[in-house]
Amino acid sequence: MPLDSYVTLGHSGLRVSPFTLGTMTFGEDHGWGSSVAESTSILAAYLDRGGNSIDTANIYTNGHSEKIIGDYFAGQHALRDRVVIGTKFFCNLYENDPNGGGPSRKAIVQQLENSLRRLRTDYVDVYWLHNFDPNTPVEETLRALDDLVSGGKVRYIGFSDVPAWATAEAATLARLRGWAPIIALQLEYSLLERTSEGELIPMAQAMGMGVLPWGPLKSGFLSGKYSSTSTGRIDTTRAQLVGAPTEADYVVIDALNAVAREVGASPAAVALAWVQGRPGITSTLVGARRMDQFEANLHALDTTLTDAQRTTLDEVSTPTLNFPAQNNRMLAPMLQFAGATVDGRPSNVSPLLQANNARY
Ligand SMILES: NC(=O)c1ccc[n+]([C@@H]2O[C@H](COP(=O)([O-])OP(=O)(O)OC[C@H]3O[C@@H](n4cnc5c(N)ncnc54)[C@H](OP(=O)(O)O)[C@@H]3O)[C@@H](O)[C@H]2O)c1
After folding, report:
1. Do the Cβ atoms of 53 and 283 come closer than 8 Å?
2. Of the residues 6, 46, 60, 123, which is catalytic?
3. Which of 16, 214, 241 is the best mutation target for the ligand 1 pocket, counting ligand atoms within 8 Å of the beta carbon and taking the most?
4. How far is the CA of 219 from the centre of ligand 1 (A)?
5. Which of 24, 159, 284 to mutate to test the pocket of ligand 1 (most atoms within 8 A of CB)?
6. Which tens digits make up the pLDDT trace of 292-339?
7. Which of 30, 126, 183, 343 could form a cystine bridge with 86, CB 3.0-4.6 A?
8. Domains, the chain, ranges and CATH?
9. pLDDT tens digit string along 63-96?
10. Are strands 53-55 and 124-129 parallel, antiparallel or unpaired?
11. What DSSP assignment string belongs to 6-43?
């Protein structure tokens, strides 16, 4: 699966690579990112392989990530229209300014103007709401975003880290009012964080939203540098910040490392291939601090897992979901029906129902 096997992002005509380049590590402002030279090399390598989708945010390295991307494309104007640049608004870059961030009309417009200035472009392809503010009316946010789409400064809208109920409410409102739709979600998803399977991913599938999983290596826990038997400290700045895996995490990490040995690939490649192959996933956000990590991660594109290997990983990482998802998962055998859906998904009568039929 090469980077140029583009797929549509949700129910839209926008085509993106199966891996989107995450640039939270671009720039050194947070103390754990990459130099300008290294960031630029990673970006060039991604584009060189046919990648077309780049993810950043106003907050990443306090705007430096956007600036690195902007400077790169400013030198190559012909390239800018060939790529999909997504950035996010919400986080406040201005201390003590109550309107410096968030999803109000005033804040959105000024955040976009600042992102466009740093990105040195006159439009953003996907403009992402980065988080949830229960205090701003969702109509205000959606209408402001719709104006930006109508005005040509934004092409598409996405939501990130917003509860499923609030996203569904917003998507329904946008549809009824004829405003720009929410075409995609960003959510944390990896072998160590699967609770989005309860609400967010089924909602995205039902409502025609693409899914871009972030943190697919759980900040490096799934990259191969951890195992329950290794005693060495991981001394990258980010590793210190995120802390160490738990005992439960190590059960999954050890299983991943074993599957990777069997496949003959790195644990990072296997973890990324697992995420990208899960139901509902459109384009995994691949992050790297160094070029060698980025190249290792791209091997996921050539990594094929057998059904047995997938089952091993699925089972060892099965999450306990919130109500009602966990409850309904247990009841699933009783909630199936005879026949099949129009697109061929089976819905067999469960053994329990068959037993009832036999009795009465
Ligand atoms: N919407 C949101 O709220 C949100 C949140 C977070 C991220 N994101 C997006 O998602 C992207 C990816 O997220 P993430 O950075 O959390 O992803 P991740 O893949 O879970 O973690 C990436 C980190 O893991 C380590 N790593 C990566 N590849 C490695 C390899 N091959 N070998 C060893 N270590 C490796 C590096 O950290 P060290 O080397 O420093 O240890 C790297 O910075 C971000 O760049 C950003 O665009 C979005």
Report:
1. yes
2. 60
3. 214
4. 5
5. 24
6. 999 999 999 999 999 999 999 999 999 999 999 888 888 877 777 777
7. 126
8. 7-316 (3.20.20.100), 323-360 (no CATH)
9. 999 999 999 999 887 899 999 999 999 999 999 9
10. unpaired
11. -EE-SSSS-EE-SEEEE-TTBSSTTSSSB-HHHHHHHH
